[in-house]
Each structure stands twice: as structure tokens, then as C-alpha cells.
Design brief:
308 residues; alpha/beta; 5-stranded mixed β-sheet; two-stranded parallel sheet; 11 helices; 9 strands; 45% helix; globular
């Protein structure tokens, strides 16, 4: 488990200077009022939508596949809002990594933390069942104000970004565990402790079942929540975070532990999990990460990509 951001003199190499300059600019923006940040983010999101053709196509296709009942005009409106929210998410990450605790507390609200404490007091680990909402980084920072946990993450390929994300995330977490380190996750849960877990992205064919996700009948979905809950003797608590109306702050909600989870088989658990994921996304569809190629893995490898 990673418990400290390790700085190396190699990060000062000239090849990293453009990255450090970008970091300097990012840190300056965290001094701006939140309302100014959100206005800048909205404009950035519109630029990304205009010039990032492949990402725009992916998001538009995801909305078409998931919500065929919506009119094209409704989906285009949701697509535009989603890119605006994606631009704002840049500042969510900046704020999560560099705001002081005092400033975070001025812009947050939280409900349901008693469910976490009751579960831990009963001797069970807590699996926070989250989705890739765009303000998720800030959600973790807010949660850490009352209960630091263990983050599950993918190490970054760029060493500067790896250092920054570890340092930033450890402001609200006890440690970070690679998403592939199942043994360490189980150890943390049996401690007992809190870990973050997401099952709403396409991680390929390994350990996946093909089940419905919104209107798509066969989305590749991992079944790790069942495995973690069984081996870690843990409870699963759905978790939601959003930017509030008017972009005045952030709100998180921790829901009660799921009853009878894990169930009799992992397939039924995964189907139930996807329904919960849909319920969480529906709380604020515009703030979900629709840019991910959620349906890139098909049941038959010879099938044509739905993104072509």
C-alpha cells in the first residue's frame, strides 16, 4: 500500500519542465473563487467538445445507446451539459488536491456518514460503491474530512502526475492500493477499514459478465464487489457526489449498507450492482463520465465495435 508520495530528483529533469509549468498554472487557479473556476471550466468543456472529435463521438454514442427513448435534441442538450461539467471537473481535481481542509469544509455538505461509522463499529469493512461522477476526486476529499479511507487507483504513467496524484489523494486517504492488488484490499477491509470501489467501466473480458446497463443488454461488467465483500467480510454502501445547483459547492451522500449482499451468485450481484449504478447516475446524469468507451468489449470478439 502506498502511504507516502515519493519525490525524486529525476522529476526536475528538463523533459518534465512543461508539466511543472502546467502544475504551476493549475495551482494558481485554486486561488480563484469557485464561481470563477466553474465559469472557466464551462468554457473549457465547450472547447473540448468542439475539438476532441473522438471523445465527443464516444460520449454521443454512449448517450444514444443508453437512452434511446430520448429525442436527438434532448441527447444533444445532455451532451453539451456533460462537456461543460467535464471542463469544470478539472477544477474539482485542483481543489481536491490543493484546497485547505478549512476551505473544503466551507464548500461541502455530507449526509449518511452514520452508516459508515455504524458498519465499522459492527466490525465490518466498508466498500464505498461509487461511480465515475466527474467530481469524484472532491468526493474523496470531503469524505476524508470525517473518515479517511483507502483509495483504489491506477498508477499514472507520467512520474510527475503520479507524484501529484498520490500526494493529492493522500490528503484524504490513509493510503492507496493498486486496483490489481486484491490481497491488499481484502487485508484493509478485514482491518476493518474503508475502501473505494467502482464497477461502472469496461475493464475488458477478464472477470466480467455481460449484463444490461441502461438500454444496452450486454455491457461487460466486473464482479469484483462480490469477491471483495466475501473475502473482506465487508458491507457495500452506495456513494454519490455532485456539484450542487449553481456550482456553489459539493454534496456527498452515503447510503445504507445493501441487504443480502453478496447474494447467492455473482451474476445476480452484478445485475443488482448495475441497477444501483444507474440510480446513482440518474441523480445527475450530466455529471457522469460519458466519455469512457463503456461498451468497447463485446460478447463476441468478432462483433463490430458499437463506436464505429
Amino acid at each position: 500500500m502506498v502511504e507516502k508520495a515519493e519525490f525524486s530528483s529525476s522529476l526536475y529533469h528538463p523533459k518534465h519542465w512543461p508539466m511543472w509549468f502546467g502544475v504551476f498554472l493549475m495551482r494558481l487557479t485554486q486561488l480563484l473563487p469557485l464561481s470563477w473556476q466553474m465559469k472557466l471550466g464551462k468554457g473549457l468543456g465547450r472547447l473540448v467538445m468542439k475539438f476532441a472529435g473522438s471523445r465527443t463521438h464516444t460520449a454521443r454514442r454512449n448517450l444514444t445507446l443508453c437512452f434511446p427513448e430520448m429525442t436527438p435534441a434532448q441527447r444533444e442538450e445532455l451532451l453539451l451539459r456533460n462537456f461543460e461539467e467535464t471542463g469544470k471537473a478539472i477544477f474539482d481535481t485542483i481543489n481536491a488536491w490543493w484546497w485547505s481542509d478549512e476551505k473544503v469544509q466551507q464548500h461541502m455538505s455530507i449526509t449518511g456518514q452514520e452508516h459508515v461509522q455504524d458498519t465499522l463499529n459492527a466490525g465490518h469493512g466498508v466498500i464505498l460503491f461509487a461511480v465515475h461522477c466527474l467530481p469524484l476526486e472532491m468526493g474523496a476529499r470531503i469524505f476524508g474530512q470525517f473518515q479517511p479511507g483507502v483509495g483504489v487507483y491506477r498508477p499514472h504513467n507520467n512520474p510527475v502526475m503520479e507524484y501529484l496524484q498520490v500526494k493529492g489523494r493522500l490528503r484524504s486517504n490513509k493510503g492507496l492500493v493498486s486496483k490489481r492488488d486484491l490481497r491488499q484490499m481484502v487485508r484493509c477491509l478485514r482491518n476493518p477499514d474503508v475502501i473505494w470501489y467502482t464497477a461502472d467501466q469496461d475493464f475488458g473480458r477478464s472477470s466480467a459478465v455481460f449484463i444490461p446497463f441502461y438500454a444496452m443488454p450486454d455491457a461487460a461488467t466486473i464482479t469484483g464487489a462480490t469477491t471483495l465483500a466475501k473475502l473482506g467480510k465487508a458491507k457495500v454502501l452506495p456513494f454519490f457526489v455532485e456539484r450542487t445547483a449553481g456550482d456553489e459547492g459539493y454534496r456527498i451522500e452515503v447510503m445504507p449498507p445493501l441487504d443480502n449482499f453478496p447474494g447467492e451468485n455473482e451474476l445476480d450481484d452484478a445485475i443488482r450492482g448495475n441497477k444501483i449504478i444507474e440510480t446513482i447516475i440518474d441523480k445527475n446524469r450530466a455529471q457522469y463520465m460519458w466519455l469512457h468507451r463503456r461498451f468497447k468489449t463485446r460478447p463476441d470478439p468478432t462483433d463490430k465495435s458499437v463506436y464505429q
